[in-house]
Hints:
The protein is mostly helical. The chain folds into 2 domains: 1-39, no CATH class; 42-129, no CATH class. Helix content is 37%, strand content 6%. It has 4 helices and 2 strands, in the order βαβααα. It has helices at 19-32, 46-57, 76-79, 89-106, and strands spanning 9-12, 36-39. Strand 1 (9-12), helix 1 and strand 2 form a beta-alpha-beta unit. The protein is globular and about 50 Å long.
Amino acid sequence: MAAESGVNVICQKPMAASFALAQEMTKVCRKQGVKFFIHENFRWQAPIRALKKAIHSGVIGEPFKARVSFCSGFPVFDNQPFLAELEQFILTDIGSHVLDVCRFLFGEADNLRCMTGRVNPTIKGEDVA
């Protein structure tokens, strides 16, 4: 609707429910001549930017291995109950942020693997990865 109204579009993850829908979103924005941005906000947080600066300054040497994790006690289902119905909850909600932070800090991945599981029995998708 924004693109068809001539308004630039910013979309946070997940971009779309399917690859076909993502392609259609891109096509509509291109056709309407509007800018289309996918927003990942973790990379802009001050601690992440400071870490990137430290890594690239050489103060710790050249990293050859890293572990990036995210853990929060934020009651995510209280203000976003629809997340409990996602087939892939943690990957959709947090996984994209962790991957984007890694890409921001270290560059593109050559290989990516993930194991998932579910601890919370009241949600549909996985909640640990």
